[in-house]
């Protein structure tokens, strides 16, 4: 058994694949974009679509300049939250009896009783060519999972249309046009 680094040919995510000794190919499903592909170990892995990468913390964010993003929204329990261009802070809406003067408020406040979701939980950066999500520094205990990958402070990952985001126990879906 050996661990081989491989790049998803669809979204460019760097994967670690455990292969059997001497195996030339292996069927793999990317945990980020859910694409099924055959990993070939007798040739070098394919280059990611769109070119190189930029590193932000420990996760790799693909740098794609192919498609303009006109709008981005979050769908949480059937309610649509539009995101503006630039950095959007996402978090739990303060309760009615909470002191509104305590700490920074999110630009997108999700009304929920989920106390595992922080009032300031994540940043979603909407640019013309891509959308990325990162965890707010100082929220070490708060859980942020994107398409099955847990993010830690200083991590960032590119969001794709249909990406599933879990903040605490609250789930939302990212949509882009």
Question: Can you put this structure into words, describing what you see?
Answer:
This protein is mostly beta strands and 177 residues long. It contains no helices and 17 strands. The chain folds into two domains: 48 residues; 105 residues, Tumour Suppressor Smad4. The strands form five sheets. It has a six-stranded antiparallel beta sheet with strand order 8-7-17-16-13-14, with no helix packed on it. The chain starts with a strand and ends with a strand. 27% of the residues are buried.
TL;DR of this structure?
The chain is mainly β. It folds into 2 domains: 2-49; 72-176, Tumour Suppressor Smad4, CATH 2.60.200.
**Count of strand segments:** 17
The quaternary structure here is single chain
Can you tell me the CATH architecture of the largest domain? Sandwich
| Gap between N and C termini | 42 Å
Element-by-element helix/strand order: EEEEEEEEEEEEEEEEE
| Strand order of the biggest β-sheet | 8-7-17-16-13-14
Strand content: over 45%
Helix share of residues?
Answer: under 10%
> Largest beta sheet, briefly?
6 strands, antiparallel
Backbone shape: elongated
The low-pLDDT segments are 43-65
Counted up, domains total: 2
Explain the layout of strands and helices.
Elements: E1 2-7, E2 14-19, E3 25-29, E4 36-40, E5 53-56, E6 59-62, E7 72-76, E8 79-83, E9 86-92, E10 108-110, E11 122-126, E12 131-135, E13 144-146, E14 149-150, E15 156-159, E16 164-167, E17 170-176
Parallel strand pairs: 9-10
Antiparallel strand pairs: 1-2, 3-4, 5-6, 7-8, 7-17, 9-11, 11-12, 12-15, 13-14, 13-16, 16-17
What keywords describe this structure?
five-stranded mixed sheet; six-stranded antiparallel sheet; 2 domains; single chain; 177 residues; elongated; Tumour Suppressor Smad4; mainly beta
């Amino acid at each position: 058994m050996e661990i081989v680094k491989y790049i998803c040919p669809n979204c460019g995510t760097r994967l670690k694949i455990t292969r059997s000794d001497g195996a030339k190919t292996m069927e793999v499903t990317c945990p980020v974009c859910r694409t099924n592909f055959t990993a070939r170990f007798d040739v070098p892995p394919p280059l990611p679509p769109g070119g190189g990468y930029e590193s932000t913390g420990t996760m790799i964010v693909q740098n794609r300049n192919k498609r303009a993003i006109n709008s981005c929204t979050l769908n949480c329990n059937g309610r649509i939250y539009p995101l503006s261009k630039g950095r959007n802070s996402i978090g739990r809406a303060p309760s009615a009896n909470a002191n509104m003067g305590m700490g920074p408020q999110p630009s997108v406040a999700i009304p929920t009783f989920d106390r595992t979701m922080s009032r300031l939980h994540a940043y979603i950066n909407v640019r013309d060519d891509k959308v990325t999500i990162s965890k707010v520094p100082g929220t070490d205990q708060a859980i942020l999972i994107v398409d099955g990958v847990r993010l830690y402070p200083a991590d960032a990952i590119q969001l794709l249309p249909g990406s599933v985001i879990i903040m605490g126990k609250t789930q939302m879906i990212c949509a882009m046009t």
